[in-house]
Every structure is written in structure tokens, then in C-alpha cells.
């Protein structure tokens, strides 16, 4: 059973440290990648405040396809090089966008989103998708979120065989 109240009173960094530790425990004994990504997105949604969408887009046949997520219905397919997610894939870099409305070519799936962080899923120099998180606040994501989300991605890469879900 998951009780969010156990995190009351913790600092932001303490919550993120717990989030990373809990992810490892949640997915280490489960082989199904979709199950693990569903729990990974739910865990971020539970412990990262002031966000309105979190989820994964997975590379399939040369484009990003919507995977497990938490939030409003989302864009189902994103072309490589388009929007923040597609740009993250083409550049193989983390994108921390302070104001999505100033990002040329931003794809607005949720009108409430004002800032975004996207981490490419890279294993053995191959991009398998992205982790995408949106916030209704401008400037919501900092180096602190990026630091812990990089650790989060390392755990996902440790346990998930991306070849199982990416084409």
C-alpha cells in the first residue's frame, strides 16, 4: 500500500531521494516494461509537486508514441525534431524549458502547461524515447529536478529492456 502522507514534512530533495530509492524497489523484480513505466510515472506524479502531466513517449517506427502517463489525454505521436520531446530525441539532450510558449514549435497537448522538462531515454547510445514532465508554472523545473530525474533514468535503464517495447 502506498501512503503519500509519509512524505509530509520532507524537503523537496528528501522527497526526490525517496522517489529514486522507491523506483528501484518498485521495478527491480518486475519484468514487464509497460508495468514499470506506469509505476514510474505514477511515482513522479505522487512525489513531484506543481506538475500537471508526466509520462513516457517511446520510439516506434521512427517517431515517438505515447506510453504510460499520468495527466490529461495527450498527443499520441510526435515526430523526431518536433516540439520539446522531438528536439530532445534529435539532440540527445535534456530539455529544461522555462516557458514553453517561447519555444518555437512547442506542441501544446495540455493548454495548462507552461514549463517542461524532457529527458531522452538513451541506452548504449541509442534513443528509445523520452520522459516528459509538464507544469502549469513558468520556470518550475530547476537543476534539482534534473539531477534526480537523471538518477531516475539510470534506474529505469538498469532494469528495463527498451528493445521489448521500442521498434
From TrEMBL:
Organism superkingdom: Bacteria
Annotated GAF domain residues: 54-151
InterPro entries recorded: FRMsr_CS (IPR000614), GAF (IPR003018), GAF-like_dom_sf (IPR029016), Phosphatase_reg/MetRdx (IPR051330)
PROSITE patterns: UPF0067
Family as reported in the entry's similarity comment: Belongs to the free Met sulfoxide reductase family.
Identification of the protein by name: GAF domain-containing protein
Amino acid at each position: 500500500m502506498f501512503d503519500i502522507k509519509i512524505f509530509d514534512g520532507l524537503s523537496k530533495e528528501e522527497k526526490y531521494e525517496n522517489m529514486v530509492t522507491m523506483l528501484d524497489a518498485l521495478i527491480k523484480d518486475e519484468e514487464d516494461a509497460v508495468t514499470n513505466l506506469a509505476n514510474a510515472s505514477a511515482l513522479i506524479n505522487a512525489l513531484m509537486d506543481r506538475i500537471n502531466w508526466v509520462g513516457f513517449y517511446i520510439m516506434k517506427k521512427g517517431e515517438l508514441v505515447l506510453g504510460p502517463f499520468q495527466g490529461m489525454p495527450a498527443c499520441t505521436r510526435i515526430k523526431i525534431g518536433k516540439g520539446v520531446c522531438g528536439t530532445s530525441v534529435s539532440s540527445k539532450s535534456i530539455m529544461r524549458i522555462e516557458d514553453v510558449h517561447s519555444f518555437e514549435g512547442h506542441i501544446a497537448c495540455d493548454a495548462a502547461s507552461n514549463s517542461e522538462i524532457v529527458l531522452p531515454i538513451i541506452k548504449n547510445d541509442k534513443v528509445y524515447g523520452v520522459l516528459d514532465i509538464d507544469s502549469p508554472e513558468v520556470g518550475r523545473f530547476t537543476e534539482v529536478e534534473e539531477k534526480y530525474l537523471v538518477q531516475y533514468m539510470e534506474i529505469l535503464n538498469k532494469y528495463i529492456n527498451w528493445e521489448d517495447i521500442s521498434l
